[in-house]
Amino acid sequence: MGARWGLDWRLGPAEKTQTLWCPEVAQVRNPRLLAAMSARCRQLGVVLHENTAVTRFRRRGERLEGVETTAGFMPIERIVVTAGAWSEKILAETGSHLDIIPVRGQILLFQGKPGVLDTILMHDNHYLVPRRDGLVLAGSTSEYVGFDKSTTNKAREELLSFTIKMLPDLAQAPVLRQWSGLRPGSQDSIPYIGPIPEWEGLFVAAGHFRYGLTNAPATADILVSLLTGTPLPLDIAPYAVLTPRSAH
After folding, report:
1. pLDDT tens digits for range 31-73
2. For residue 159, which phi and psi values (nearest 5 degrees)?
3. DSSP state of 4
């Protein structure tokens, strides 16, 4: 799925000998990971309803009954909303106010030569991530532009400048692709993980900002405990919906 690399965090352009080496930091190729997870779910008999939008939740009293979708009503006793930056919109009818906003991040993909970079490089909020086949990801921006996933020349120039400054060997490397995604930003990057008040059976896990993939295993442990009624692995009060973040 991915290669294991060290993390070389450069402290400044004039301080190239001052680095923080983190040999246990790893990476995966997100599309391959998601494809593998999808295939495994199907092997286990999980039914995936793709391209099916949830239009509203249905409950009796405070107990969840199911969801209305573009494919009709689906009776469901427990639901976990994990819709990233769109989670607050989906949960709007519940009256829950999740402080989640979309944060656009743009990335460039360079075609370098295999071995052109053998570590992840980070400086401030930018990074270079190498692949074994010579591809190098350069990212990323943090833009508060709502649900706009377009790409811009400004971001391209910003990432080009960063890449060439940190790795001059890529100055002549072709840029294969530029794309953007919307991160689910939240106050202090603290996600919401737990039940939705007054909606028994409805849960949320969203707002992880940059750390969704790395925090996914711990988030899953919490959700399994909530769904099965087993003891929680940790205190989830800091992640509760409607909990004032200023208190944490």
Report:
1. 899 999 999 999 999 999 999 999 999 999 999 999 999 999 9
2. -75, -35
3. B
Could you list the beta-strand ranges (E) of the chain: 6-10, 19-21, 54-60, 63-69, 72-75, 79-81, 100-111, 119-123, 126-130, 135-139, 175-186, 192-195, 202-206
Tokens of 52: 């099916």
The angle formed by the CA atoms of residues 26, 177 and 19, to the nearest 5 degrees, is 35
Residues 6+ apart with CB under 8 A from 199: 57, 59, 62, 64, 94
Q: Give 81's contacts (C-beta < 8 A, 6+ positions apart).
A: 87, 90, 91, 202, 203, 204, 205, 206
The full length of the chain comes to 248
Angle at the Cα of 215 (from 209 to 217), degrees rounded to 5?
A: 145
Give the Cα separation of 108 and 178 in Å (integer). Answer: 5
Exposure string over 96-135, b if 16+ CB within 10 A, otherwise e: bebebbbbbbbbbbbebeeebbebbbbbeebbbbbbeeeb
CA–CA separation, 132 vs 176, rounded Å?
A: 16
pLDDT tens by residue, 96-127: 889 999 999 999 999 999 999 988 999 888 99
